[in-house]
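Shift notes (night). Ran Pentacotripeptide-repeat region of PRORP domain-containing protein while the centrifuge was going.
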Amino acid sequence: MTETHLHLHHHLTRSIAAAMAGAPMNKFKIWVLDDSAIVVSQEEVEEVVKLSYGYPSTAVKFFRWAGYQLNGRHSPYAWNLVVDLLGKNSLFDAMWDAIKSMKKEGILSLATFASVFSSYVIGNRVDEAFMTFEVMDQYGVPRDVVALNSLLSAICREGRTKKANEFLQVGKDKIRPDADTFAILLEGWEREEDIAGARRSFEEMLLEVGWDPRNIPAYDSFLCTLIKGPNGFHEALKFLNTMKERRCAPGIKFFGFALEECMRKLDARGAALLWEAMKIRSDFRPDTHMYNMMISLHCQLGNVDIAGRYLDEMVYDGAFPDYHSYNTLFQSLLKTRKLREASSIFTEMVKNECLPSQANCIAAVRLFLDSGDPCMAIKVWKFMIENYDSNLEETGNFLISGLRDCNRVQEAVKYAEDMIDRRIKLSSSSLTKLKHSLVKAGMASVHDELLKKWKHR
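Came back to this:
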C-alpha cells in the first residue's frame, strides 16, 4: 500500500467510524453508506470495528452491510473483533450468535475463545468462562493445555488467581499442565503479592514439570514475589542458589527488581551478591539501568571509588554511561570534594556529549573556585553559558568575585564584559569589587569602560 493509499485508507475508516459514533443509539442508517458509494476492503472493515467498541449495535450493522459488499468474505480477524466487541459490551447472546456463524464458516480459533474468556472474566462471570472452556471442543477448537493456559491467563490478569488455581486443581487430571501454566499462575500471584500462593504453585510446578532452564518467566515471578515478604530478600537469594545448582536461573526482570530493593534499603552487600550472580552468567549482561542503580547506591553510601569502578566497567558489558550515570557520579565527587576526579569526569562527560546538569555545574564552579582552581571553574562556566540560557546570574557573579579574589583581575574583567554582552545581569556589588581592584592596580580607565558598558546594557 502506497503512502497516498494508506492516508486515504485511514481517512475512510475514521470517517465511517466518526459517522457511526455521531449517530444516536440504534439510529444509524445503512443507506447513508449506500448513498455515499463507499467501497470497503477487509482491512478497512477491521479498522472500523476496532474504532467502534463504544457503539456495538451500530458496529454490527456496519459489519453486516460490509458483508454484502465483500460477498460474505469477512476476514477471521474481523469476526474475532466483532466477538470481542460484543463480549466487552456484555452482549453475550449476540456474541454467541457470531460464534455460531463463525463455526459455519469454519474460521473459529483459539483466539476467538481467548476473547470470550476475557470478556466473561472482565464481566465478573468467571463460571461462564469455565463453562465456555468445557464446550469449546464442540466448536472444533481443541480443549488442550494451550487453551487451558489462555483461560487461566484471562482470569489471572483480572486479579482472580485463586479462582484460576482452583480450576487447575480440578482440571489437571484431564489436561496436564505445562511450564507455561505455572508461569501464568506465578505471574498472577506476583501481581497480587500472594507469597503463600506463589510458594504452593512453585512447589506444584516442580512436582508436575520439574526444573527447566527455559522456564525463566516462572522463576522471575516467584523470586519477585518472595522479595516482597518479611526477610524476603534473603529467602530469594537462597532459592537463587538452589536454582543455580539445578542449572536454572531467573531473568533480567528479577535482577532489576532485586537491585531496586537493594537501593531502597541501601543494601550494598545484597547488591554485590546479586551482581556476582549476574556476572557469572553467559546468557545476559547487566544493562545501563542496572549499572546506574549500582552507581547510585554506592554514591548514596559515600563509596564514590566503587561507584567510579562500576562506571568504568560498563563498556565491557556493552552498556554505556548516560546522563544519569555521569551526573550521579559527578555530583557525588563534588559532594565529597574529590575535585581531581570530578575534573576528569567533567571532561569525559563533555567529550561524550552527556551534559552535566546545571545544578552540578553551579556546585562545580563554586567548589573549584573555593579550592583554588579557577581554570577549572572557568571551564565549567564556559560550558554553562554555551548550554544553558537561564539561572546564570548568581554563578556568573560568583565567578567574577572569585577570580578577583584569586588576583586574576584581567580575567574577571573579561568575563564581566562577556556577561554584559550576553545580557546576564552583572550585579553592582561585583562591579564595585572590581573597581577597588582595578583602581589599586592603576587600571581605573578599564573600570570606567566597564561601567559605561554596564549602564548601557
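The two ends are 60 Å apart (CA to CA). Residues 1-9, 24-28 have pLDDT under 50 and may be disordered.
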